[in-house]
């Protein structure tokens, strides 16, 4: 029986390809923790997660000082046991982003190792529901962009076969949001999906007014209209509006998703493997959502989420935001607007290790070995 022999840690800072601004923040840099697990057979698996500019150093210290030493010598096939043990180990800081981001990097590495040793791609290993999934783009819909740029980007995406575009909302005046969405709908027509995202920027009264004003435009959803912990507010908005409410990128526990679903507080689940703690809890959330007939449209991480969306029956969309191009050899494959799940064994990410080594922040490079514990 193979055991975990070594865990190598690195963190890479990646600058966004375009300026990214929403209603509450700017996406400054993508701190990308990378975990590579080697077992006693010599097999390896690599996982990762991300921040949007803060907290990366804390994630790396949590990995190096607490989580990775705990699993040296463990059977790497015991994914469920390892995940729960690490969650309990960090119960004093759970539930929160730092812990979840660290857990995600380990868990995705274990899944990559498991799939590679089985000779299967992640989407088949985790369920195998379909080979591809529709793709929508967010990269051209940031809040600071003029309406002309948003329209131009959406028309280009539509011509490439994309199924929809997501536009950030939360301009200072309601009429500004309405004018932007109206212009976009007129340009793309009724057969193209428009998603909107408020990034938790509204109060309850503002969310109700914005949703009512945007209802005539046939939106696919309104995302994070309220603070993520305001479940009662999401219940009220879901009851008052015909626009599906989407939540998930700022939820860090399967129990949070369960309460949202049970209380009819959302119509779209956007569970993020990098923020829920990895693939293991991601699949739990997706299967639970299926029980409530709620589709899953995960947030960000398209290179990983394409396989997870294709693994489950209720996976609906993959979000297109380029993330890993500078540290991978090949990116997400898109054909006629459909994201194609990789067939290569593992999580399907073709890492460029020369680029990773060149970009890695030296102070976070670390190897945890069996002889060290």
UniProtKB/TrEMBL annotation:
Domain named Mandelate racemase/muconate lactonizing enzyme C-terminal: residues: 147-244
GO biological process: amino acid catabolic process; carbohydrate catabolic process
Magnesium among keywords: yes
GO MF annotations in UniProt: hydro-lyase activity; magnesium ion binding
Keyword set, alphabetical order: Magnesium, Metal-binding
Gene3D superfamilies listed in its UniProt record: Enolase-like C-terminal domain, Enolase-like, N-terminal domain
Cofactor or coenzyme needed: Mg(2+)
PROSITE patterns to which the protein is assigned, alphabetical: MR_MLE_2
Coiled-coil portions: none
A Pfam family per the record: MR_MLE_C
Protein name as catalogued: L-alanine-DL-glutamate epimerase
Organism (species): Paracoccus isoporae
């Amino acid at each position: 029986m193979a055991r975990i022999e070594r865990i190598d840690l690195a963190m890479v800072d990646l600058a966004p390809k375009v300026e990214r601004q929403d209603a509450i923040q700017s996406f400054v840099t993508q701190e990308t923790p990378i975990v590579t697990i080697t077992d006693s057979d010599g097999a390896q698996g690599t996982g990762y997660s991300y921040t949007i500019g803060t907290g990366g150093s804390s994630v790396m210290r949590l990995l190096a000082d607490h989580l990775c030493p705990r699993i040296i010598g463990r059977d790497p096939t015991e994914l469920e046991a390892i995940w729960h043990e690490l969650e309990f180990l960090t119960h004093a800081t759970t539930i929160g982003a730092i812990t979840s981001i660290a857990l995600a990097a380990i868990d995705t590495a274990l899944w990559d190792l498991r799939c590679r040793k089985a000779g299967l791609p992640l989407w088949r290993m985790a369920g195998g529901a379909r080979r591809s999934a529709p793709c929508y783009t967010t990269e051209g819909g940031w809040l600071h962009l003029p309406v002309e740029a948003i329209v131009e980007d959406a028309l280009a995406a539509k011509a490439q076969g994309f199924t929809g575009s997501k536009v950030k909302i939360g301009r200072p005046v309601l009429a500004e949001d309405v004018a932007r969405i109206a212009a976009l709908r007129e340009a793309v027509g009724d057969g193209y999906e428009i998603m909107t995202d408020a990034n938790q920027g509204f109060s309850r009264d503002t969310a109700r007014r914005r949703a009512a004003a945007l209802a005539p435009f046939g939106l696919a959803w309104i995302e994070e209209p309220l603070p993520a912990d305001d479940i009662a507010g999401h219940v009220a908005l879901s009851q008052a509006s015909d626009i599906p409410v989407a939540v998930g990128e700022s939820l860090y526990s399967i129990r949070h998703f369960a309460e949202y679903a049970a209380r009819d507080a959302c119509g779209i689940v956007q569970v993020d493997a990098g923020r829920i703690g990895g693939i293991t809890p991601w699949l739990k959330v997706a299967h639970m959502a299926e029980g409530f007939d709620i589709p899953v449209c995960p947030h960000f991480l398209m290179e990983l989420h394409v396989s997870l969306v294709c693994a489950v029956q209720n996976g609906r969309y993959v979000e297109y935001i380029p993330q890993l191009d500078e540290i991978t050899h090949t990116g997400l494959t898109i054909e006629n607007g459909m994201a194609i799940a990789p067939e290569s064994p593992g999580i399907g990410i073709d890492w460029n290790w020369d680029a990773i080594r060149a970009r890695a922040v030296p102070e976070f490079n670390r190897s945890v070995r069996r002889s060290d514990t």
